[in-house]
């Protein structure tokens, strides 16, 4: 029995969203391994930052080329390629003998993340009915948060397992990977979900809008019928054909009057979201809590709590983003994060890190991010561009996001050593109010509009 309508759309979007799970898992799993790597390889602050941000360099490379590849070969094929790269990266991390080899493996995984991060939300957006698009694209962010949480839980489980078996002194393969050098088990565990992602992608269809662009109208209509029913599918197919016929399909279209505002938003909004310090919190959380006075196990536990709230509050966005609208969610997100970052910074500056205040401030921070910027940015950048160049334009937006991530992740260890953790978070806080002003002045409201209506909004 074939699924149709909402059930069919949700199933496809959940499969594409698995790329978000791997995004979250692959980029955050290093947080549990970095202390072991620092001690084993005697990493300097610069090398530590490079090891942490190397995956993000891969993300930049992946995002830079994924748009062209997805426009040329289709969204589905590039997602399959991303799954393959995740598998290769996990194997490489598990067998690495030097920091340089580990960096290369992390870059390969980062390219996979760049592919998935660029293509998956766009793929979901192009398949979703307008009334559900915000929620379904938000599922992608939910998958990221679930991946982050699972990486924390996996790290905590492996750390506990290693602590309880360290006295065994076995020379077995399992003891080497899961106890003696437990970081290998942490970084290699990504291979399991990557295999599932690869298999699931073999059963999803191609994006109907890409199919129309390539002239495969019959196949596109078949997908649209399963999503919306025969009557709506016919009118939507016609709207897509008309819209694509009016597009030039070149980057020059992005700097045309009206549309160029979409380009400015697509470059600025993702970068500003990363200046909130989210990668610092996600990747360095265990180390931050240890420096605040916690033991390794309790620091990992505190990190898992943050990961849990990150996932839970993403449900708020899924529930409300199509009702509240994109613009209010983003404005309140930047404003709320400014307050949270100020509280975290002052906790470190005043030395108030021993009780629950610091953990509570981090939970407030992650609750705001997860319910606003986390999903909101992906929703906006996945829906504001014309179909013919959506892949390449999404590449620019995703590239900006990963450049912001790389910048923040690479800079954090050096700033931490020079000015202290507290002042680093105050620096992040300073950026948030100008970011809220940017959204208020430039970002339009797009809730309830079809992708073709949004494109005509820019032209008018």
From TrEMBL:
Q: NCBIfam families per the record?
A: SP
* Full protein name: Sugar porter family MFS transporter
Specify whether Iron is a keyword of the entry: no
Q: What is the topology of this protein in the membrane according to its UniProt annotation?
A: Multi-pass membrane protein
- Signal peptide per UniProt: none
Q: What is its main location?
A: membrane
What family does the entry list? Belongs to the major facilitator superfamily. Sugar transporter (TC 2.A.1.1) family.
In its UniProt entry, the species of origin is given as Pinibacter aurantiacus
GO CC annotations on file: plasma membrane
Listed InterPro entries: MFS_dom, MFS_sugar_transport-like, Myo-inositol_Transporter, Sugar/inositol_transpt, Sugar_transporter_CS
- Location of the protein in the cell: Cell membrane
Q: Which residues form a coiled coil?
A: none
Identify the taxonomic lineage of the organism of origin: Bacteria, Pseudomonadati, Bacteroidota, Chitinophagia, Chitinophagales
One MF term in GO for this entry?
Answer: transmembrane transporter activity
Q: Where are the transmembrane segments?
A: 7-30, 50-69, 78-97, 103-124, 136-162, 182-204, 261-285, 297-317, 329-349, 361-381, 393-412, 418-439
Alphabetized, the UniProt keywords read: Cell membrane, Membrane, Sugar transport, Transmembrane, Transmembrane helix, Transport
Which branch of life, at top level?
Answer: Bacteria
Domain Major facilitator superfamily (MFS) profile, by residue range, is 12-447
PROSITE patterns, alphabetically? MFS, SUGAR_TRANSPORT_1, SUGAR_TRANSPORT_2
Any single Pfam family the record assigns to this protein: Sugar_tr
């Amino acid at each position: 029995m074939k699924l149709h309508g909402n059930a069919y759309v949700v199933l496809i979007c959940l499969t594409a969203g698995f790329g978000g799970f791997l995004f979250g898992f692959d980029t955050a799993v290093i947080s549990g391994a970095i202390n072991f790597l620092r001690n084993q390889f005697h990493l300097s602050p610069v090398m530590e930052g490079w090891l942490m941000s190397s995956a993000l360099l891969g993300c930049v490379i992946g995002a830079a080329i994924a748009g062209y590849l997805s426009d040329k070969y289709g969204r589905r094929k590039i997602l399959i390629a991303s799954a393959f790269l995740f598998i290769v990266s996990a194997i490489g991390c598990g067998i690495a003998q030097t920091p340089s080899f580990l960096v290369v493996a992390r870059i390969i995984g980062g390219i996979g993340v760049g592919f998935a991060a660029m293509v998956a939300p766009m793929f979901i957006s192009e398949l979703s009915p307008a009334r559900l698009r915000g929620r379904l694209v938000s599922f992608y962010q939910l998958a990221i948060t679930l991946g982050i949480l699972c990486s924390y839980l996996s790290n905590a489980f492996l750390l506990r397992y290693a602590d309880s078996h360290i006295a065994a002194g076995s020379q077995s393969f399992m003891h080497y990977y899961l106890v003696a050098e437990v970081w290998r088990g942490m970084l290699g565990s990504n291979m399991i979900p990557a295999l599932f992602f690869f298999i699931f992608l073999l059963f999803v269809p191609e994006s109907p809008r890409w199919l129309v662009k390539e002239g495969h109208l019959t196949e596109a209509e078949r997908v649209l019928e399963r999503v919306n029913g025969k009557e709506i599918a016919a009118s939507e197919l016609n709207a897509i054909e008309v819209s694509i016929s009016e597009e030039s399909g070149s980057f020059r279209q992005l700097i045309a009057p009206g549309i160029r505002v979409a380009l400015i938003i697509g470059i600025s909004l993702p970068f500003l979201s990363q200046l909130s310090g989210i990668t610092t919190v996600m990747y360095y959380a265990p180390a931050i809590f240890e420096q605040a006075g916690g033991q390794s196990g309790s620091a990992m536990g505190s990190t898992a709590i943050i990961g849990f709230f990150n996932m839970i509050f993403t449900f708020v966005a899924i529930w409300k983003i199509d009702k509240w609208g994109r613009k209010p969610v983003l404005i309140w997100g930047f404003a709320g994060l400014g307050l949270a970052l100020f509280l975290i910074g002052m906790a470190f500056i005043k030395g108030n890190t021993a009780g629950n205040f610091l953990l509570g401030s981090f939970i407030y921070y992650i609750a705001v991010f997860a319910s606003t910027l986390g999903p909101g940015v992906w929703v906006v950048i996945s829906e504001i561009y014309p179909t013919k160049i959506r892949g390449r334009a999404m590449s620019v937006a995703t590239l900006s996001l990963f450049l912001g991530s790389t910048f923040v992740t690479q800079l954090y260890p050096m700033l931490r050593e020079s000015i202290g953790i507290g002042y680093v978070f105050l620096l992040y806080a300073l950026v948030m109010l100008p970011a809220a002003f940017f959204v208020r002045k430039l970002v339009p409201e797009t809730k309830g509009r079809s992708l073709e209506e949004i494109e005509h909004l820019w032209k008018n």
